[in-house]
Amino acid sequence: MQTDEQIKDIVRQKYSGIATQDKGSNQASCCGAGGCSTEVYNIMTDDYAAVKGYNPQADLGLGCGLPTQFAKIKKGDTVIDLGSGAGNDCFVARAEAGETGRVIGIDFTPAMIDRARVNAEKLGFNNIEFRQGDIEKMPVTSAIADVVVSNCVLNLVPNKDNVFKEIARVLKAGGHFSISDVVLVGDLPENLRKDAEMYAGCVSGAIQKADYMELIRANGFQNITIQKEKEIIIPDDILANYLNAGEINTFKSGATGIFSITVYAEKAKECCGTDCCK
After folding, report:
1. 30 assigned to some structural domain
2. Which of 112, 152, 192, 233 is the most exposed place for a label (fewest CB within 10 A)?
3. CA distance 134 to 10
4. Are 126 and 101 a contacting pair, CB within 8 Å?
């Protein structure tokens, strides 16, 4: 069984390679309109094209939702994006937070940080910064963020409980998060669950939906809401790398489902005595 650090190394190496490509190159092996049959990283993406602040150069097609669309970002907010990649969600968040806001992107892949910084420089934004670091131990001070967003990243992290603890630490009292992620209902076939490539592709690193929601509750978050949910369909030619024909039929007709969810939750407000004062 792989250790947490071995899994992280696999993910870092895989996404370092992806960072050198554009969205079109990542999707070059996709067949037909909107359907990718050989590239696991792009079977879950949503379309950002109509979203304010979208920058095509920063979109590598790696998300599974549009968390910034649901994040209730206000002018002047400080926003942290976990697993910021080439900066796509940071630029969308900046459009909402405005020139008086601040956006911090965190990613542990140096190649992604380099690419995001180049994109920000080209756009001339001086209120966005990108920091290299592990989101299980974020390189930011406590109680700094009004909003935390993340797009299809926590499923790549072995210890998701640590990430939610860190989110609680960096959020201000009364702050909130909106996170898009991949979760499961039912058990994945063993070959899918164990495969490192599928882990780096966001699937086998996913946990049960009920366990995911419980992690959020257990870390003290309130007003937890699923803002969006959609089923993820893995194409047969990807499944064929891991399962035989009979296993594929069982998997597709069974009780297992793979879903993209966008979850919203709030950190409790600080209270003085019996009355909340912030």
Report:
1. yes
2. 233
3. 14
4. no
| Exposure string for 38-70, b = 16+ CB within 10 A, e = fewer | ebbbbbbbbebeebebbbebbbbbbbbbbbbbb
| Average pLDDT of the residues in 155-172 | 94
Q: Is residue 106 part of a domain?
A: yes
**What are the pLDDT digits (tens) for 22-74?**
665 544 332 222 333 444 444 556 677 778 888 888 887 777 889 999 999 99
Q: State how many domains the chain has.
A: 1
Q: How many CB atoms lie within 10 A of CB 79?
A: 27
- Whether the per-residue pLDDT at 231 is higher than 70: the answer is yes
Question: What is the CA angle 209-35-238, rounded to 5?
Answer: 65
Q: What is the CATH number of the domain that holds 124?
A: 3.40.50.150
Confirm whether 224 is domain-assigned. yes
| Residues 133, 134, 139: CA angle, nearest 5 degrees | 50
Put residue 26 in one of left, alpha, beta given phi > 0 → left and psi -120 to 50 → alpha: alpha
* 272 falls within a domain: no
Domain with 156 in it:
4-266
Residue 229, number of CB atoms within 10 A of its CB: 13
